[in-house]
Amino acid sequence: MGTIKLQNIRTFSFHGCLEEEGKIGSDYRVDLEIKTDLRKSALTDELKDTVDYVLLNQIVVEEMDIRAKLLEHVAHRIITRIFKEIPSVSRIVLAVSKLNPPIGGDVEAVTIEMEEYRN
């Protein structure tokens, strides 16, 4: 087994419960970690034998483009899609952070983290 991590994926998205958040948008950071078998690709040196991190990034960016009220909802969509499109992924740890959230205080980020295993 092995781990692939994509860290600090930056997006400008329109998530949030407030109507204004859907109009003005905000900066987000996504950190993704997946577990998969890397033994074959370690021997073959072939992209077809591993998980393409370009595809992982594409899934994250596309799902972050779809408005959600809650970070949990967009995170669930990302996890569901990765499991659906990449059968070799056995575990996902995903953190979605809203940077400088509008919560009336000096808060750098609000982060939710979800961990799921393939059934």
UniProtKB/TrEMBL annotation:
Keyword Nucleotide-binding: no
InterPro entries cross-referenced by the UniProt entry: Dihydroneopterin_aldolase, FolB_dom, GTP-CH-I_C/QueF
Pathway given in the UniProt record: Cofactor biosynthesis; tetrahydrofolate biosynthesis; 2-amino-4-hydroxy-6-hydroxymethyl-7,8-dihydropteridine diphosphate from 7,8-dihydroneopterin triphosphate: step 3/4
Domain spans labelled Dihydroneopterin aldolase/epimerase: 4-116
Signal sequence bounds: none
Coiled-coil blocks: none
Family indicated by similarity: Belongs to the DHNA family.
NCBIfam families the record matches: folB, folB_dom
Function: Catalyzes the conversion of 7,8-dihydroneopterin to 6-hydroxymethyl-7,8-dihydropterin.
Protein name, as recorded: 7,8-dihydroneopterin aldolase
Phylogenetic lineage: Bacteria, Pseudomonadati, Bacteroidota, Flavobacteriia, Flavobacteriales
